[in-house]
Amino acid sequence: MNLFGIGGFELIVIFLVGLFIVGPDKLLILIRKTKLIYTEFKKKRDELISVVEESMDIEDEGVKELKNIKESLGSISEDASTKLKQIKKDLDR
């Protein structure tokens, strides 16, 4: 058993120290509250991870859109350059 990098023996020692410090009644309450806090922490962590992943997906979509715009502008620029060269040739004649 390995919880937070703490083995079984360490958990027993922590439990016994807690038992001596706060007493058996309060120790159970403390354990329940700690469990609730840990559960809430996990929920918030999972929410944060999903928000970050979602924002990364949005950024990826934005990058793809920017690349598409860049390609479109590049082709428009090439077309305009070709047409300007053609106009220059026509004017030179």
Summarize the entry for a quick read.
The chain has 93 residues and is an all-alpha fold. 90% of the residues lie in helices and 0% in strands.
**Which geometry do the CA atoms define?**
rod-shaped
Uncertain runs are none
Average of pLDDT: 80
Secondary-structure-derived class:
mainly alpha
Strand portion, in percent? under 5%
Span between termini: 88 Å
- Written as H for each helix and E for each strand, in order along the chain, the element string is HH
Helix content: over 70%
SS field, number of helical segments: 2
Biggest sheet descriptor: none
What oligomeric state best describes the polypeptide chains here? single chain
What does this structure look like?
- The mean pLDDT is 80.
- This protein has a domain at 31-92.
- Helix 1 packs across helix 2.
- By secondary structure, it is mostly helical.
- The radius of gyration is 32 Å and the shape is rod-shaped.
- Helix content is 90%, strand content 0%.
Note the topology.
Elements: H1 8-22, H2 24-92
Helix pairs in contact: 1-2
Note the main attributes of this structure.
mainly alpha, 93 residues, 2 helices, rod-shaped
